[in-house]
Structures are given as structure tokens and as C-alpha cells.
Specification:
Elements lengths: L2 H4 L11 E8 L4 E7 L4 E9 L6 H16 L8 E7 L10 E6 L5 E2 L12 H20 L2 E2 L8 E3 L5 E3 L6 E2 L33 H18 L12 H7 L14 H10 L10 H6 L1 H4 L9 H8 L1 H5 L2 H5 L22 H5 L3 E4 L2 E4 L5 E4 L3 H14 L3 E2 L3 E3 L8 E2 L5 H4 L2 E9 L5 E13 L2 E12 L2 H12 L18
Antiparallel strand pairs: 1-2, 2-3, 3-5, 4-5, 6-8, 7-10, 8-9, 11-12, 13-19, 14-17, 15-16, 15-17, 17-18, 18-19
Helix pairs in contact: 3-4, 4-6
The protein binds adenosine-5'-diphosphate (ADP) and magnesium ion (MG).
The site of adenosine-5'-diphosphate (ADP) has 22 residues, from strand 1 and strand 3.
Keywords: ATP-binding, Kinase, Nucleotide-binding, Serine/threonine-protein kinase, Transferase
Family: Belongs to the protein kinase superfamily. CAMK Ser/Thr protein kinase family. NIM1 subfamily.
GO molecular function, one term: ATP binding
Length: 488
């Protein structure tokens, strides 16, 4: 497709929903917030580009994702609403691709709220891990294996309920109504989360690989980091685990005996010795009553973000500039975002245009102009060995979220500055995302509202990068913190 014809293309409406803002992406997709303006409803739309070169195999995989995901209905599985396809050889004014309309996870990523190397307390880990096991038990009952359980595929809805998403790597291993299971052979997933048997060439049993994924997730919730780079002898930490030498060291020493036996049961190297999901669900740590279940959404949000509060990270993401009435009198066009849970999580922020819904907590306010802050952030990124592309100006009023190339500084004034960045985290996993800078004036304070939005990669690593940027010597002096704004 030529540049001139592609520039005329737009997004189709999907079941009455218009794609309005990019909110995430993965290895293969871009995810947008989608709004049905007639019905005042919001959703998410996952878009995968199709070209004339898209292989049959890739299409088969996408078909499977749609077929399987659309059949799954459970409280802890992200709801699939519908899908449409725009073929690349159709003569339509739309970007060719598969558009999957999904329930919006308005609470953002679960792991975006977890402080690196600190993790969450056992209570909140128990609360969410139980939901993960419930959702996965249902998925397995349908004969489906997820195969890509990892932090970035666990989202929260507006009420703070866990939603398993991304069935891009799933597989049907048991046909409904039969007891016949088949072994799987495709090697997939990313190394820190995959089960050891998946790196061998023999077919593997389906259910145990998801149980392993659950073990990695529970560990990551409690420790704020994954246990190893990869489950092979190449990894020092994994070798220490194999030889039982890790248990005297942090973070393993932090785990109580009950939860430790559950984690090691799920991370049994031999799949036949690994706990089954039913055994996980029946483990004493799992069946203990939860104190959180009966408490309200505000308490839930406070518990979830306790580690961010203690480190002061939340005061930076939300330095009390907002005009939101704490009792909930929030003026919002799209009410589906606003719940007591999302408000307590501080997912709304004050910008030039008013109160904006920003599901990511990796953001900050700085007391200087965007054009002065930009080079300071670029220096910090270079120092951190993170690659960045030249910044572009995005017209806030164009509605299509399109990017226009910058020329002079003036253009930035009315617009948002966006810069794509990417690199590798300490587990050698690729991350990508962007930094957005927007000018703000509020109650006599002027400066920049900066959002760091992750596209791909581990949310905890992304949070670590955010922390490094705001703590860098160039940026740190200008970061606005809550203390300065406390009313007497
Ligand atoms: N329904 C949704 N609501 C909010 N954010 C979403 C939703 N679906 C996906 N995302 C965001 O987009 C990212 C990529 O979506 P995912 O389905 O995992 O795509 P991929 O197959 O490309 O990994 C997720 O990690 C999440 O941050
Ligand atoms: Mg994903």
C-alpha cells in the first residue's frame, strides 16, 4: 500500500464502537479504548494488522484466538464481545486487520501496581491468586490451555476484579465432551515464564505448563520480580533453585512456610510431580478465608498499592493536583471508567483539558515546560541504555490520535509530545512503549504532565524504568510530589 493511500485510511466502527485512544499493545497487536457514543459505553479493541503477506499459519492462529476466546465466559476471563475483519484486498477506506472488541479492563494492569522487588502482601496475593486459579480452572474445564500466563496478561476491571486476557497462544488439548487429552508440541511463551519441559523437543502435557505459569505469577506477586531468566542451567538463579540453594536467600526467605510449599509445588520441575490445579485450589493457603473479600473497593485499592504508597511512588503519580472531589463527585464523559476502585487507585489525572482517565500509574508531573523536560528525559534514557526515537507532536484535537512530524518547537505548544522508547529489562526481555508530555496549568502551577505508557514487556520492569527516569539527576529536581500540595 502506498503512503498516500494508507494515509487516507481510518479505523472502522466495530459494532458501533469507535477506536479513540491507544492504550496498549503486545508483540503482535495494538489495543485501543473504544467508545460507543450513542450508547455511552466503553470497550477495548485489539487490532492485529493483516497484509497480503500475512501467512496462512498466522491467520489460523488468529482464528483460533477468536474461536476459543469468544467461547469463554467467566468472571475472571476478559470478556470477548465480537470481532470483525477488514481484508487487505478489500477496497475499503479502513486499515486492514482483525478487530477484536473486548471488555475494557478499566483498572489497568494488575502488575502495574506492584513495586519492583517489594511485591504485595500475602493478603492481596491470596485475593488475586485465588481469582487466577478460578479463571484458569474454568479455562481448563473447557479443554483450553492458555500457555502465556504472565504479568502483562492479567488485567483488572473497573471493580478491581482480575481478568485473564490474551488467548493468542492458547491451545485446545481436550475436545469437549470427551476425556481424551492430547499432548502439545509448539514451543511458545517467553523464557522467564515457560515451564522447563517446554524447552525440550518432546511433546508436553497441557495443564502442567499453566500450573507452572501460576507458580511464577504467585512468586512475582510476592517478590516483585520473576524468579529467573529462564528455566535452564544457563540461569544462575534457576540452578540455585534446582539444587535447593536459593531457599536461604532473599526473596525466598521472605515467604512463609504455607505459601512456600504452594509455590514449590507448582514449580516442581518434573511435570508429573507438579501440583494439579485441583491440588492448588485445595492447598491450605488457598482455602484460608480472605479478609479482603468483604471489604470495599477503596480498601482493596489501598491494599493493592500499599507498596507504592510506602515507597512514595504513588505520591509522584498523583501529587494532589486533581480537581476530583474525593467523595466521588467526578465529572466524566465516560462513566464506565469511574468506579470507587479506579478512583481509589488514582487512575484519573488533571491535565490541560480537564480530568483525564489514565490507567497507567507510571506518570508524573514536573514543574518545567515539556520542551525543557524532554531533553532531560532523553539524557536519562540514554544513561539507562534505553533507545528513544525522535519525539513527534500529536494533535490532541484531531481525534484520530494520529502523529504529525515535528518541525519547530511552536507546534508542540498546543499538542502532546510523544516519544517511542524501547530496550531490554534485567531478565533480558524486550520492552517497548512511549513517553507522552503534555503542558498543564492548574491552580497557579504550571509544568508538564508526563505519562510513560508501556506497549510490550513486563509491567514491573516498566515501573522500574519509570522510577529510574524520575530519580535521574536531571529530572528529579523538577518532579512534583504530594507534600508540596497538601492543604492545611
Ligand atoms: N481489554 C483490555 N482493556 C485494557 N487493556 C488491555 C485490554 N486488552 C489488552 N490490553 C492491554 O494491551 C496489552 C496487549 O494485549 P494482549 O491481548 O495481551 O495482546 P498481545 O497478544 O499482542 O500480547 C495488554 O498487556 C494490556 O496492557
Ligand atoms: Mg499479551
Amino acid at each position: 500500500m502506498s503512503q498516500s493511500s494508507s494515509s487516507k485510511l481510518r479505523f472502522p466502527k466495530v459494532a458501533g464502537y469507535q477506536l479513540v485512544k491507544r492504550i496498549g499493545g503486545g508483540g503482535f497487536s495494538t489495543v485501543y479504548r473504544a467508545v460507543n457514543f450513542d450508547e455511552h459505553r466503553v470497550a477495548a479493541c485489539k487490532m492485529v494488522t493483516l497484509t497480503l503477506e500475512t501467512t496462512k499459519q498466522a491467520r489460523k492462529t488468529l482464528d483460533r484466538e477468536i474461536r476459543v476466546h469468544s467461547a469463554l465466559k467467566h468472571e475472571n476471563v476478559l470478556e470477548f464481545i465480537t470481532a470483525i475483519c477488514v481484508e487487505p484486498d478489500e477496497d475499503l477506506p479502513y486499515y486492514p486487520g482483525l478487530y477484536m472488541l473486548l471488555e475494557l479492563a478499566a483498572g489497568g494492569d494488575l502488575f502495574d501496581k506492584i513495586a519492583p522487588d517489594v511485591g504485595v502482601g500475602e493478603e492481596i496475593a491470596h485475593y488475586y491468586f485465588t481469582q487466577l486459579v478460578d479463571g484458569l480452572t474454568y479455562i481448563h474445564e473447557q479443554g483450553v490451555c492458555h500457555r502465556d500466563l504472565k504479568p502483562e496478561n492479567l488485567l483488572l476491571d473497573a471493580a478491581g476484579t482480575l481478568k485473564i486476557c490474551d488467548f493468542g497462544l492458547c491451545s485446545v488439548y481436550r475436545l469437549k465432551g470427551t476425556n481424551k487429552t492430547r499432548r502439545l508440541c509448539e514451543l511458545c511463551g517467553s523464557l522467564p515464564y515457560v515451564a522447563p519441559e517446554m524447552s525440550q523437543t518432546v511433546p508436553y502435557a497441557a495443564e502442567p505448563v499453566d500450573v507452572w505459569g501460576c507458580g511464577i505469577i504467585l512468586f512475582t506477586m510476592l517478590a516483585g520480580n520473576t524468579p529467573w531468566d529462564e528455566p535452564t542451567k544457563k540461569s544462575y538463579e534457576y540452578s540455585q533453585y534446582l539444587h535447593g540453594l536459593c531457599f536461604d536467600a532473599d526473596p525466598w526467605t521472605r515467604f512463609d512456610r504455607g505459601v512456600l510449599s504452594l509455590i514449590t509445588g507448582m514449580l516442581a520441575v518434573e511435570p508429573t510431580e507438579r501440583m494439579t490445579l485441583a491440588e492448588v485450589a485445595a492447598h491450605p493457603w488457598m482455602i484460608q478465608p480472605s479478609q479482603l473479600v468483604h471489604k470495599g473497593p477503596a480498601t482493596l485499592a489501598a491494599h493493592l498499592t500499599a507498596s507504592l504508597r510506602e515507597s512514595g511512588d504513588l505520591d509522584i503519580a498523583d501529587p494532589n493536583l486533581e480537581s476530583v472531589d474525593r467523595d466521588g463527585d467526578l465529572v466524566m464523559g465516560q462513566n464506565a471508567h469511574a468506579s470507587q476502585f479506579t478512583q481509589s487507585l488514582q487512575l484519573f489525572s488533571q491535565t490541560q483539558a480537564g480530568t483525564r482517565y489514565t490507567p497507567v500509574l507510571t506518570r508524573f508531573y514536573a514543574a518545567i515546560d515539556p520542551l525543557i523536560l524532554l531533553p532531560l528525559i532523553q539524557d536519562a534514557l540514554t544513561e539507562l541504555k534505553v533507545k528513544w526515537k525522535p519525539a513527534v507532536a500529536v494533535d490532541l484535537n484531531s481525534g484520530d490520535d494520529g502523529e504529525t512530524n515535528n518541525g519547530d518547537g511552536d507546534k508542540f505548544k498546543e499538542k502532546l509530545i510523544r516519544m517511542r522508547i524501547g530496550g531490554y529489562d534485567r531478565r533480558r526481555l524486550l520492552f517497548k512503549g512511549w513517553v507522552e508530555l503534555e503542558h498543564f496549568t492548574y491552580n497557579g502551577t504550571e509544568g508538564t504532565f508526563c505519562v510513560m505508557q508501556r506497549d510490550q514487556g513486563n509491567p514491573i520492569s516498566w515501573r522500574q524504568l519509570w522510577k529510574s527516569v524520575i530519580m535521574s539527576p536531571g529530572v528529579e529536581p523538577y518532579v512534583l510530589r504530594k507534600r508540596a500540595y497538601k492543604k492545611e
